[in-house]
């Protein structure tokens, strides 16, 4: 039975996308982009759908400039990009699940987010009610006499998000890992459609709670780009301050957790203290430990007073004292190094192919940081180094995070010394230029978060696409664990710390 | 490493004194717990955490309960790796439809007597994800809930208040 799909505002022909242009292409143009991706001349930033269109954001490696191309799909299908460029596969499966648009010639047409439990198919396209309560899922085969399978999840042993891992192992050694995700799918795309900008900002801040500042920032920047707004200088600096505090808190928490998965509880305990003190300072300064909903389109909603500044300076001094000690504790403990060095190696070729962002990419030689490469205010004012390694193992991912901690500390100190005076919010009218489109690329602690949105003539969000960095990190975890022992999986997994909620949407 | 260990011995603990339990949460629990059960469990409670589709915010704050400032184990509260070892489940998230069966099966795998603590605004009433085709709506719609701890996400002190109230109610 067909039920009417949610009304979707059609793109107006003069709706320009800012700051990066969006151009319409035909099937040949679409395939030409796919070929360039396959040849490694372009990086895939994202691939997403609407009721009768697919969009693809790509990054030109040399410039680096972002372009968005759009293909109309009147017949409900589009030429598969994943056929020649595997990083697109899961994104295409998602488009098929949510919008019913099929990727022609895709080598993997299994459902991804849709587990057959929603009571309907294609929630964003031609909706269809279904009676099924669960779809069967065929995992990729791993054949051979001594192989056995180990199913793990969706409920895991720790206090972490849900997902399913299917290991095929030969004794202790992992021959293949296949991930099955989508368990935390909350229907964000559809909740966004028709939402007011204020509500959409609240939703964006809850796509992945550990990156709530980065998501809030990316969403706000996209809205500002669409409406031609500019946040005041003080707001821009406070945003960067919050983003760096979030990065610091997550890096300390994760470095501790990685060590804990190698049974080194001392590091975990001390890193957790640093993390807690950062969150307490954030709560004292901005009124929320994770700084959720503190960034809004137009600026920020919480200002930093003199007491807050002093508290952050004190915190910074203490962290600067602790960081070398923690680095020494990590680096000088040989039993820990024995677990992290050479474990879970990701090749340079793979991170380049997947345009994998964040510390996972940087630990394998991909020097990309959205704060520098694409760039957004106010980061051009700061002088900081991007961490880089070519080893690609668990150890390298930890060291790159230590480098990022140093860079963030430097940025926070600079902001505290040079915080401009003035307003923290720019007033704006939601319908001034609507319908209009905007996009943003923001460096969260995991990597680059891409947001594209269209604001309809009514001033509400017509469509908002949020691409988590983990889309291009999860597949590399499957590669990283290959040939390692099953017991090292928690260590490898934690060294990636991919988001479940972010890509599950 | 020696330095860290020595400091650990010589310095005062960071652990803070416990907050007073919330009267409301104690009242919510009062009627659910029988005397015989209280005697069996004493003050100890093993908890299995289940993320039923949260954004990970609640998990971060539940994690924080293990750090030196809150040190949740001093209250006899311990997070365990399997529902088979648990007395209580802490459930977060708006219960996505994709997680519903996993939650039901985790609950079924937990031995009696058992309790469910729903943590966060999503677990209470779906939070910002209300009315999504992909969410059930609240934890109470899937498994019986004994205590709600609200917040988006609730901070560790709020969590501690709720959990201490829970243990005290089991000992009254």
Q: CATH homologous superfamily of the largest domain in chain A, by name?
A: Cytochrome-c3 Hydrogenase, chain B
SSE order of chain B in H/E notation? HHHEHEEHEHEH
For the secondary structure, the number of strands of chain A is 17
- Into which percentage range does the β-strand content of chain A fall? 15-25%
Instruction: Name the shape of chain B in a single word.
Output: globular
Beta-strand percentage range of chain B? 5-15%
Helix content of chain A: 25-40%
Gyration radius of chain A, rounded: 22 Å
The end-to-end span of chain B amounts to 44 Å
Average pLDDT of chain A, rounded to a whole number, is 92
What's the CATH class of the largest domain in chain A, please? Mainly Alpha
What is the subunit organization of this protein? heterodimer
Our measurement of the CA-to-CA distance between the termini of chain A, rounded to an integer number of angstroms, reads: 26 Å
Q: Structural class per helix/strand content of chain A?
A: alpha+beta
Main β-sheet, spatial strand arrangement of chain A = 1-15-16-17
Number of distinct helices of chain A: 16
Unreliable runs of chain A? 1-14
Protein name (chain B): NADH-quinone oxidoreductase subunit NuoB
Pfam family, one (chain B): Oxidored_q6
Cofactor (chain B): [4Fe-4S] cluster
Family (chain B): Belongs to the complex I 20 kDa subunit family.
